[in-house]
# Entry
Amino acid sequence: MARHQEKIKNGFTLIESLVVIFIISLLSGSILVSYYSGQKQYSVTTASQRLLVDIRRAQNMALAGATQGADIPAGYGIHIDSNSQYFLFYNTNASKTYAFGASAVMETIFLPAGVSISPLNEDIYFVPADPKTYLDGGILIQQSFILSNSDNNQTVTVHDSGMIEKVTN
# Structure
């Protein structure tokens, strides 16, 4: 009787290879989607944290009576100029609002790409040795700024007491 020997094949078939490639591409795609979503959330979070820090910085400079070289500011503030930037400024006159040309801009802060801020043309202003917070020249009750991109929102709220808080929506 003739003995029939079977050849043992080593390796993978085409279908097995295609299934493995499909699974790897599916996992890679889901990881990339999560990464881009996380990047969008991160940009809104960092922008809102930066706004919060800059408002506190203006508040602290006003409370400390900080000078700017030879200038003695009457107060410090934040002006929301457009949906992609805001200014840290000070006034040497009694005005409690930002005035182009009259207010000294200390720093212009640009928001990350894709992140916008609202409402526009608002001023938060702090006067030295005055516990009041001003919004557009009047006494502030409460003002919220919303930083957002296509998927995420965060709110920075300034209260009349001077408390500043960030809320993730």
